[in-house]
Known about the structure:
Blueprint lengths: L10 H15 L7 H12 L24 E7 L6 E11 L5 E11 L8 E7 L24 H7 L2 E5 L15 H15 L7 E10 L1 H16 L4 E8 L5 H8 L3 H17 L15 H11 L7 H8 L17 H7 L11 E6 L7 H14 L3 E6 L7 H4 L1 H11 L5
Parallel strand pairs: 4-5, 4-6, 6-7, 7-8, 8-9
Antiparallel strand pairs: 1-2, 2-3, 3-5
Helix pairs in contact: 4-5, 7-8
Amino acid sequence: xxxxxxxxxxxxxxxxxxxxxxxxxxxxxxxxxxxxxxxxxxxxxxxxxxxxxxxxxxxxxxxxxxxxxxxxxxxxxxxxxxxxxxxxxxxxxxxxxxxxxxxxxxxxxxxxxxxxxxxxxxxxxxxxxxxxxxxxxxxxxxxxxxxxxxxxxxxxxxxxxxxxxxxxxxxxxxxxxxxxxxxxxxxxxxxxxxxxxxxxxxxxxxxxxxxxxxxxxxxxxxxxxxxxxxxxxxxxxxxxxxxxxxxxxxxxxxxxxxxxxxxxxxxxxxxxxxxxxxxxxxxxxxxxxxxxxxxxxxxxxxxxxxxxxxxxxxxxxxxxxxxxxxxxxxxxxxxxxxxxxxxxxxxxxxxxxxxxxxxxxxxxxxxxxxxxxxxxxxxxxxxxxxxxxxxxxxxxxxxxxxxxxxxxxx
Length: 410
């Protein structure tokens, strides 16, 4: 697993996190009993996450600007040498509405001047779409932040959004670029309002898979949405970019059915006014449409076997029509493809050559488009590396790249 072991005190957790993440993202691979047991604890571990009411936003939601903090809670079981908080903060959804979003902030324990530390805004890969699937709810909310220990050791603050509708209930966000982007940028703003972080307005965007999609949208939206933030670089591992191409490539296996169910459920809610009257029936078989709500309520970690039970019989009989050709649906998919317009900051793209979920050819096409647009792109492809391992595999290359372009402090 490459650099899975990062600090001796948490080395076992880091190795296990890599194993679990591989299982999560290569969901066609059967899971062992041991992984299911502990992965189940991660998904269903709200008992260790403090009072569940923490995730219930006040009603009505108090007035606030994007990035304002609604509430925080110190986490005692943070990484060694770090301070950690769970928080609710103001953000926006794709319609621009004010919403509450949850997440986690982790900072080195060493004293820092106010506004000294660069914030790494981490965008997580798919864990599900239901509120209980949020990473911050798990028994160890830090295990799925890839590179966390090394980023903290380098002196960065790490801010990890759950995305809207996860943790705190609310608007859907799965592969909805504008919502994800706002959530990723606003938690970087929120980090500056949490005493003890030393967080500055300098931001690194770092994401894997779905999180790569979120990070690319955040980089594109930042100049207009958050001009108060100094986004310095964006780094992505196996990012979801051309959703139509990825859907076409993946829909023939259990992974594609599961990710498709998450996306179709998310879009059917968020874009109801732009889609056919019965949006799921417009693209799915009756069995597929009936299955989607139940699948959307299951988490990838801890409920993998239940997802398989539903998805396996649908392989080859999920889609009734190609969504890329159905009015409304084709527009929504195109709208949420990662922007290929020039980014104003350097871009780092890592891709595993053996990835069967986010296909290397799709990522390569995105890289070519960004290079043609004039973006400063560094692209690394790793032979023999699959989807789950790539974000860990790339750390030895990524961290020096960050240090040169976005150092942890000034």
